[in-house]
Specification:
Blueprint: H1 6-26, H2 32-46, H3 50-82, H4 86-102, H5 107-124, H6 127-165
Helix pairs in contact: 1-2, 1-6, 2-3, 2-6, 3-6, 4-5, 5-6
């Protein structure tokens, strides 16, 4: 493998992007799904794999688009049924950002949970109902992460099939 040409360099960078992208789905603040897709897209466009590369790139892009849509629609529908508003999620996200800077390592998660709970407590004036809404929001966030992880694995699988075929 000659790393001085674009095909050789892409053959090194693409798998690194795919693996870091999959890990990035689980680590907040890393655009995991986009990174995974970018590695596959770079391999498809610059790797010199012809029709196989283009087919892999198009398939990965379609899966990315479907994953993004599902990531927001499915958990959002569940939250609407549970009565958790978009404003609550937004303010929970603000709490997560604040927590990220206040508490090292776990602050994002703690701030998100605390933010949602406090907003729901203020809205409902009932601790038990606020906690139920918080649990629904956490389940939705977990479902969103699972959808994103599945999407990243499917994109990686498409890429591996392309490597194997090409």
């Amino acid at each position: 493998m000659n790393v001085t040409d674009s095909g050789g360099l892409v053959s090194i960078i693409a798998p690194i992007c795919v693996v870091v992208g999959i890990i990035g789905v689980l680590v907040p603040m890393i655009p995991g799904l986009l990174l995974c897709w970018a590695g596959v897209a770079a391999w498809a466009v610059f790797g010199g794999h012809g029709a196989t590369g283009w087919a892999v790139g198009i398939a990965a892009t379609v899966v990315l688009a479907l994953g993004f849509v599902a990531k927001y629609l499915v958990p959002g529908r569940n939250l609407k049924r549970a009565g958790v508003s978009n404003l609550t999620l937004f303010l929970g996200g603000v709490g997560g950002i604040i927590g990220f800077f206040v508490i090292p390592v776990v602050g994002l998660v703690v701030g998100f949970i605390l933010g949602i709970y406090l907003v729901e407590l203020a809205r409902q004036s009932n601790a038990a109902s606020a906690w139920q809404s918080t649990k629904h929001a956490l389940k939705a966030a977990g479902l969103s992460m699972l959808i994103e992880l599945a999407t990243a694995f499917i994109i990686a699988g498409i890429w591996i099939a392309g490597v194997w075929l090409g």
